[in-house]
Recover the amino acids of this structure.
């Protein structure tokens, strides 16, 4: 029997499932719904709240007094981890990829407001991440803390349990049935949790991950392994390989680098539904969904859910892309 995992209450759940009829009409495609995980409430919201509910419960069970984690300069995960730590009385230590910028804005500004200890370093490969995380953990210990390390994006099997719960939540909200779910996929944990959740659903939707950084050949196996590990925690069968759908044609020049399609998607959703997307994750995921709808990928009688994973604080960093808006 699968072990029951403790879960905190950090998010405002369930999040709304919102119809997007004006966007659907503009695209001439299927019925569109938006799952508003940008409304989870913790530090402006986002998908990481669901993962942190399990990860920080484990940290507390291990008597941790500090949390060490890693991300890029505009990491949503780091921002929300810092906020959750403050809510729970723990110290946040953040390893951030790159050098400290002259201007603190977006998520990085919020990290500073939360009083996180920031360590900047170039993270060119997995070895650099491991080395710098170990060093920052040692610093936390030297400061008198018992550190708990969370991987990038909170993307391990424990964190992914939050998105098994999320799929249950969605399927309890949706009528008519959901045929497809689209979600931005970076470190892979959100997509993996959703896929693992399909293994207990009677009529599961197809889970599409739109990659924001990795090729299909790199991200696909990562998501597949994570989904299998998450399923094992629940006593479920590992998802078949064909359950892992990754679209990698919308990354552009690289992670966190804007594309015209991303900018246009952000504008279109804002001007049809009054919903803000972000330039790093949801803008690129929506650009992929728009392209596939316009390419005739879906039937008009299907229902597609776009999973809004948050990230809006990063918009101000890309202000020059919207100067002519």
């Amino acid at each position: 029997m699968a072990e029951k995992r403790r879960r905190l209450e950090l998010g405002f759940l369930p999040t709304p499932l919102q119809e997007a009829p004006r966007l659907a009409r503009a695209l001439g495609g299927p019925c569109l719904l938006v799952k508003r995980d940008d409304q989870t409430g913790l530090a402006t919201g986002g998908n990481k709240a669901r993962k942190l509910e399990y990860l920080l419960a484990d940290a507390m069970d291990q008597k941790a007094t500090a949390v060490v984690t890693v991300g890029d300069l505009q990491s949503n995960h780091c921002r929300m981890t810092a906020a959750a730590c403050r809510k729970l009385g723990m110290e946040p230590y953040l390893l951030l990829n790159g050098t400290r910028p002259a201007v603190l804005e977006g998520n990085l500004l919020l990290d500073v407001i939360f009083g996180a200890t920031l360590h900047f370093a170039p993270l060119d490969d997995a070895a650099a991440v491991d080395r710098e995380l170990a060093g920052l953990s040692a610093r936390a210990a030297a400061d008198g803390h018992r550190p708990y390390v969370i991987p990038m994006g909170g993307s391990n099997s424990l964190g992914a349990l939050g998105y098994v719960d999320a799929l249950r939540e969605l399927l309890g909200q949706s009528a008519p049935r959901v045929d497809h779910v689209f979600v931005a996929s970076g470190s892979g944990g959100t997509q993996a949790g959703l896929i693992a959740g399909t293994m207990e659903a009677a009529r599961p939707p197809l889970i599409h991950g739109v990659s924001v950084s990795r090729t299909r050949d790199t991200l696909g196996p990562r998501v597949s392994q994570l989904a299998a590990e998450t399923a094992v925690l629940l006593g479920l069968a590992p998802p078949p390989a064909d359950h892992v759908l990754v679209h990698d044609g919308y990354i552009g020049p690289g992670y966190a680098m804007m594309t015209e399609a991303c900018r246009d998607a952000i504008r279109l959703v804002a001007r049809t539904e009054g919903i803000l997307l972000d330039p790093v994750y949801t803008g690129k995921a929506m650009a992929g969904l728009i392209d596939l709808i316009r390419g005739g990928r879906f039937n008009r009688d299907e229902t597609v859910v776009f999973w809004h994973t948050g990230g809006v604080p990063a918009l101000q960093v890309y202000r020059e892309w919207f100067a002519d808006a």
About this structure: The radius of gyration is 19 Å. The chain has a mean pLDDT of 96. The longest strand covers residues 66-72.
